[in-house]
Structure formats: C-alpha cells, structure tokens
C-alpha cells in the first residue's frame, strides 16, 4: 500500500533520555515490547536531549550515528521508544534507508499479532487505520499529483484523495460492526444485572500476571506468557464467592505507560467490562522495581476510560520472586481489606483473595427485614423473587408478610427509587 522500505525482524533500537518528565520512557520495558513483537535487537542507540528535534527527533549527529549503526549491523528496521511525527519518520527513513517505526506503531503491531477474536481484529484494524490516516501524505508523496496521459487528463481525485476516502469508508464500516458487538455485550451485561450477578474485573499493568491469576482461580486455560500484551481479547468466567454467590470475573487487556489514544478509543467496547464492574482487582507485579510508577500509569488509563471511581482491591502478585514475603491481607485505617499479597503462579494466597473479595462485595450489600401488608404482597414478593434476594419469609397473625432480603446497595437504591415511600414504610427497625 505504501511506497516505503520493507520492515524486517532485525532492528536497531533508539532510546533518548529527556530532562522533560513527560517525554520519559523506560528502556527495559521497550526491550520487552520489542521481544514481544518477535524482533531481534541488534544494537541500542541511546542519548540525552532537553527536547525533541523537529526534523529527526534526535539531533543531526545522533541521526547519522543511527544510520551508521543500521549499515554496520545490517538492520531492517529502526525502532524508537518515543512517538514520532509523520515528517520525522519520513526524514529518518530517507537517512537510514530502512523502515522506521515509533513506540505507538510497535504496540499496534503487537496487538495485530495477538488479536484472535473477530472483535479483537476489528479493534486493532480500527486503531491501525486511524494511525495510518495521519501518515498517508508521506506514504503517497509520489502520487499527490493527478494522473496524466491519454484518457486520464482532466479534473478528478488525486490518488491521495482516493486513499483518504477509502480509509474513511473502511473506518466507518468497522465502527458500524463494532457498534453491533457493543450492543451484544450490553445485552450480556443487562442479563447479568437482572440476575444480580456482580462483576469483578482484573486490571493492571501489562505482564503483571492477570491471566495467570485468572487461570488459577477459574481453572480456565487463557493464554498466559511472560511477555507484554499476552492477553488482548477479554475473557469472562463465573466464580463462586462465599456469602455472595456467583460472580463474573473478567480478564482484560493490560495497560502501559502512554497507551496510544487510538487504542483506547478502539478498545472502548472491551474496556467497558472494566467500566461496568462492581469492583476492580488491580493486579500489581510486586517484584517489579517500578511497581509504584506502574500503579500510577494504570490509574491514568482508568481515569481516561472513566473507571477511576469504581472500588478497587489491590493484588500484589509474584511474591514468589521476593524473599521473606508471605501471603497476607493488608487493611486500611477503617479495617477494610485493601491489599492482598499472593503468588498466582504457585497458587499461594488465592484463598485470602477470595476472603477479601467476599468481604469487599459484602460491604456493598444491604440486609433488611420488611413487614409487607396484604395489599402489596403480590407485587413486592414477585419483585424480590425475580431478584433472587429472599433469605427467609413468614406470615404474622395479622396476615402481613415478614420477609428477610439481602442484595447489593445499588439494587436496593434502584428499587427504593421505583417503589418510593411504600418500600421504606415496610422496613422493620
């Protein structure tokens, strides 16, 4: 499609340390991204700058150094651990005479490799098309003029305009199909809400061990590997939580620093499982030296998708990589379970996780005894039966129904709003 150099599997990596904190990236994480993409890193070129150079992102001298490294190592591609503008990519390609890809492009490539479901493939293609659409002009510079020759002269679309139109049409088509998928997911969520089944969503930095934990507590066989973005397509399984009953556990895509906005937008339907959850299990790699920065990066993404207000239980995973750490539950100043330390790989501490989860979900439950007069018994009793929240019922000597119910606070609030003062009058204090 593009008049560009072919990309291969042998790469020169470029990592620049900036004094500006917003531009800062992690070299170790970048090397893991490159490895996850199946690319061999031949050499890492590093440097320091105060701010990016407008032409090459790096300085002229460093750009020449990168080009020299490409020639000496016989590299097929240059990978930058930063976001490049289309012009910077094109200038570097001219200089290095090979393909140049930035951090966003690399992440998109990994996602393209990992997508398995129809929905996942559509989401990745949407993100790629949105990314490519900003780079069309330098991919088709030789075709900006209109075609000439016999039968081709005269007004009409340039090749570039044709490609832009085709891109727009394809993006619209994908959005329509993803809209159907989103409606199907919404129907599933509504069905779970009607059945009063709480949803627990696993979130966390990529490679924190979410899928390993998911497999451990659900006995599922979700793909889990020691690589970034091993999980792309969301998986839902039913689990049993003491004193709560059935709950749905959702395994979702991992987050990363400076997650491309195109990906966040494309994976809106997938991330909605997180937005609609009753509680989040924030899985953290406790053995990672930068776990605090990773926690902050996850909070930033949760804020971006409007899921930052959902209650969260932190799971400090991989304690098997730490000396002297045993499974335990940490509590906050109010005595509420806030952090669980465990090892998903060895299965140590999972029973503590279930205990903390039961406690946290139970704190969102309410329990009432109602005395319902004969006039309202049919409607009220039928409603409670549909909600499956009746624990005990009996009749008193006056024919009133004494009923004990237990349900989520949010469901009681909805019911109270619908029934009004009638329901409040029935509560036995």
UniProtKB/TrEMBL annotation:
GTPase that associates with the 50S ribosomal subunit and may have a role during protein synthesis or ribosome biogenesis. This is GTPase HflX. It comes from Vibrio caribbeanicus ATCC BAA-2122. It is found in: Cytoplasm. InterPro entries: EFG_III/V (IPR035647), G_HFLX_dom (IPR030394), GTP-bd (IPR006073), GTP-bd_M (IPR032305), GTPase_HflX (IPR016496), GTPase_HflX_N (IPR025121), GTPase_HflX_N_sf (IPR042108), HflX_C (IPR045498). Gene3D superfamilies: 6.10.250.2860, GTPase HflX, N-terminal domain, P-loop containing nucleotide triphosphate hydrolases. Belongs to the TRAFAC class OBG-HflX-like GTPase superfamily. HflX GTPase family. Monomer. Associates with the 50S ribosomal subunit. GTP binds at residues 204-211, 229-233, 251-254, 317-320. Its cofactor is Mg(2+). PANTHER family: GTP-BINDING PROTEIN 6-RELATED, GTP-BINDING PROTEIN HFLX. Mg(2+) binds at residues 211, 231.
């Amino acid at each position: 499609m593009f008049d560009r150099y072919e990309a291969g599997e042998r790469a020169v990596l470029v990592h620049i340390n900036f004094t500006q904190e917003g531009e800062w990236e992690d070299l170790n994480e970048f090397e893991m991204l490159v490895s996850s993409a199946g690319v061999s890193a031949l050499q890492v070129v590093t440097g320091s700058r105060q701010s990016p150079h407008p032409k090459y992102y790096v300085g002229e001298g460093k750009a020449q150094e990168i080009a020299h490294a490409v020639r000496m190592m016989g590299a097929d591609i240059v990978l930058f651990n930063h976001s490049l503008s289309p012009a910077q990519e094109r200038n570097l390609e001219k200089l290095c005479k090979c393909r140049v890809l930035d951090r966003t492009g690399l992440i998109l490539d990994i996602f393209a490799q990992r997508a398995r479901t129809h929905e996942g493939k559509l989401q990745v293609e949407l993100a790629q098309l949105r990314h490519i659409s900003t780079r069309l002009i330098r991919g088709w510079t030789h075709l900006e003029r209109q075609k000439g020759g016999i039968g081709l002269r005269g007004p009409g679309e340039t090749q570039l305009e044709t490609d832009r139109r085709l891109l727009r049409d394809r993006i619209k088509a994908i959005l329509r199909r993803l809209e159907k998928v989103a409606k199907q997911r919404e129907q599933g969520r509504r069905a779970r809400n009607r059945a009063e089944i709480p949803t627990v969503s696993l979130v966390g930095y990529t490679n924190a061990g979410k899928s390993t934990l998911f497999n451990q507590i659900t006995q599922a066989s979700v793909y889990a590997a020691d690589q970034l973005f091993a999980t792309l397509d969301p998986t839902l399984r039913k689990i049993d939580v003491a004193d709560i009953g059935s709950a749905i556990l959702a395994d979702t895509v991992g987050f990363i620093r400076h997650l491309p906005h195109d990906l966040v937008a494309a994976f809106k339907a997938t991330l909605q499982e997180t937005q609609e959850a009753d509680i989040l299990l924030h899985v953290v790699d406790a053995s990672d030296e930068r776990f605090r920065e990773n926690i902050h990066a996850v909070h930033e993404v949760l804020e971006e998708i409007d899921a930052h207000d959902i209650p969260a239980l932190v799971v400090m995973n991989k304690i098997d990589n730490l000396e002297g750490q045993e499974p335990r539950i940490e509590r906050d100043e109010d005595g509420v379970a806030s952090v669980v330390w465990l090892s998903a790989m060895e299965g140590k501490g999972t029973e503590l996780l279930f205990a903390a989860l039961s406690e946290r979900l139970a704190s969102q439950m309410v329990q009432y005894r109602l005395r319902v007069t004969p006039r309202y018994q049919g409607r009220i009793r039928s409603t409670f039966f549909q909600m499956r929240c009746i624990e005990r019922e009996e009749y008193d000597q006056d024919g009133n129904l004494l009923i004990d119910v237990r349900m989520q606070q949010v469901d009681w609030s909805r019911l109270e709003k619908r029934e009004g003062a009638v329901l409040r009058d029935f509560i036995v204090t």
